[in-house]
């Protein structure tokens, strides 16, 4: 309950920044939008500490194409000993089609490493199809479905297996200053549905100026079959200052 109250308080604090409107930067369609951020994260699970977070995101939309690529990393020490070190990178390309460009085919690749969870690597490759249930200037809500392949090494054990990827993403702009987003991804092993990975994220982005914004978000990763001696669930609460260009 204490962690939940802390999370809700931080999200509310970020949202409360949006008292006065500011003019959004005008960016022609088709150009890249980039952001880099630096902040701190409160983790609960395999690592309980304050650590540094760095993240990068680039996105582009043109014609019937959408592309998003990004990466984030965490590092922390406690009493001179490393107690957090993780990195994640992803890329996803969407090709829109159908009436009002609601349908899209996608191809996504994720890579993950976590020293504390004893995950040397985890790579997920997934093509599939998606649909925008809501798509307007303020709100988007999409669902995705497709086959996938997981390659990973946990502890001393290497494995690869076939999965089915179920995912959804929601985003809403309250005004030109504040944006809320949420995403959920479920990756069960086809041959053993009790073995699955669940990734969730929710956050608020509040602009301080045309170039700077405050971002608060929560990431939750659940692995039903973790490495020996490790916890199943990892939660990160991150507050970061972002520079957009």
Q: How many β-strand stretches?
A: 12
CATH architectural group: Beta Barrel
Distance N to C terminus: 38 Å
Oligomer description = single chain
Please count the helical segments: 1
What proportion of the residues is helical, as a percent range? Answer: under 10%
Order of helices and strands: HEEEEEEEEEEEE
Mean pLDDT: 86
**Overall body shape:** globular
What spatial order of strands do you see in the largest sheet? 1-2-3-4-5-6-7-8-9-10-11-12
Question: What is the CATH class designation?
Answer: Mainly Beta
Helix-strand makeup class: mainly beta
Low-confidence stretches: 1-28
Largest sheet: 12 strands, antiparallel, barrel
Task: Using the CA coordinates, give the radius of gyration.
Answer: 18 Å
Q: What would CATH call the homologous superfamily?
A: monomeric porin ompg
Strand content: over 45%
CATH-defined fold name = Porin
What's the number of domains?
A: 1
How would you portray this structure in words?
The chain has 245 residues and is mainly β. The chain has one domain: monomeric porin ompg (Porin, Beta Barrel), CATH 2.40.160.40. 6% of the residues lie in helices and 69% in strands. It is built from one helix and twelve strands; from the N terminus they run αββββββββββββ. Strands 1-2-3-4-5-6-7-8-9-10-11-12 form a twelve-stranded antiparallel barrel. The longest helix has 14 residues, at 2-15. It is globular, with a radius of gyration of 18 Å. The N and C termini lie far apart (38 Å). The model is unreliable at 1-28 (pLDDT under 50).
């Amino acid at each position: 309950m204490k962690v939940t109250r802390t999370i809700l308080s931080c999200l509310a604090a970020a949202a409360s920044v949006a008292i006065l409107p500011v003019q959004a930067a005008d960016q022609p369609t088709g150009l890249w939008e980039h952001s880099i951020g630096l902040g701190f994260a409160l983790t609960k699970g395999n690592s309980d500490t304050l650590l540094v977070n760095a993240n990068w995101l680039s996105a582009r939309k043109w014609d019937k194409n959408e592309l998003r690529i990004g990466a984030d990393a965490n590092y922390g020490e406690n009493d001179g000993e490393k107690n957090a070190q993780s990195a994640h990178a992803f890329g996803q390309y969407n090709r829109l089609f159908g009436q009002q460009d609601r349908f899209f085919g996608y191809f996504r690749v994720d890579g993950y490493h976590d020293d504390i969870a004893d995950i040397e690597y985890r790579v997920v490759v997934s093509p599939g199809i998606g649909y925008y249930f809501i798509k307007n200037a303020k709100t988007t809500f999409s669902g995705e479905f497709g086959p996938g392949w997981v390659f990973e090494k946990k502890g001393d054990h290497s494995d690869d297996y076939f999965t089915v990827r179920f995912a959804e993403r929601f985003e809403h702009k309250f005004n030109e200053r504040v944006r809320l987003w949420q995403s959920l991804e479920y990756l069960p092993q086809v041959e053993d549905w009790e073995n699955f990975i669940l990734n969730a994220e929710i956050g608020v982005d509040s602009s301080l100026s045309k170039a700077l914004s405050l971002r608060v978000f929560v990431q939750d990763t659940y692995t039903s079959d973790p490495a020996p001696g490790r916890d199943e669930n990892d939660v990160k609460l991150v507050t970061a200052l972002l520079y957009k260009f």
